[in-house]
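Feature request, filed as a ticket because there's no other form

It would be nice if the structure record came with a short human-readable summary line next to the tokens. Right now we just get the raw output. Example of a typical job, pasted below so the devs can see what we mean:
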Amino acid sequence: IFQLYRRIDILIISWYICFAGVVEMVMTCLTVSLSQLWQKISSAVRDFNLFPSTTPSTDEHQLRNQRISTRIFIILLTLSLTALISYISLTNVTQTIYINSPTSIQYSQLYATYPQTLTCACTQVSINYDKFLHVNYKLHQICTSIFVTNYWISYFTNARGTATLNGDDFRASGSFIFQALNAFCQLSDQTISNRLLEFYSSQYVSAFVTPLEVFQSQTQAIVSQFISSTANNFILSLLTIRNTTQSNSLLAGQLTNYGLYRQSNNYVTSSSDSYSNCSCASSATCSYQFPIYDSKNSKVIFTVPGI
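Raw output as currently delivered:
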């Protein structure tokens, strides 16, 4: 048994020595192979030439220039490819998706997600204002009061009776004032109605669906412009009438701007009235407060405020 164990040990030792020799030989061969491979790669890289002569050349200077040109070309190509790849990777790629006839809910959802890039072409590019706008207006409360009714005007006229009053007495001119006020209210109402007809026939034009916030601001601006232009045009018309009346020296019915006077030769002449150093001949804005005179002594007993 002892001899058997000894032979086994000798056999194991022999195998170990043999295996160690094989491993050492393999490592040596591998090291040599790697060294040779590295030398070949280094030589191939060093001698790599993309611009060889049409005829083989052995001129070392020429070969060196060709290799330098090859390396410069490879470096520039690498830098160009790196820049191109970086640009492509940083550039957002836009993908266009078409949805036919979307509903308003779909459009709202898409707009909430893509507010900057969403576009929706309109099948109808124009629409009248009356399809989506309605303007309610209300005149001043004086225009719906009793002071512009025929009842009040008749009452005011009949209340004076047969008394003889000065032309500028409020009781003499009051009925004309309220008639003018009534005409002014009717003119205002008619002007606004006519302007609304023109306004409603105007068209809102857009080739694409307008976002809700933008549409609301646009409609608010449209209505504000309508109100401003209507008021300005109405005031301009009144100013034109007033200035025309003043410049042509047209007499008021109650002779409150010009007076008629008979001369000694029976000729009648006119002379402008003045109020607080304001002559009706040179200004259309002269004004005064209507008085109420005492019928006995023609003294002012009351001045009507605001008129």
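Something like this underneath would help us a lot:
The chain has a mean pLDDT of 81.
The chain has six helices and eight strands.
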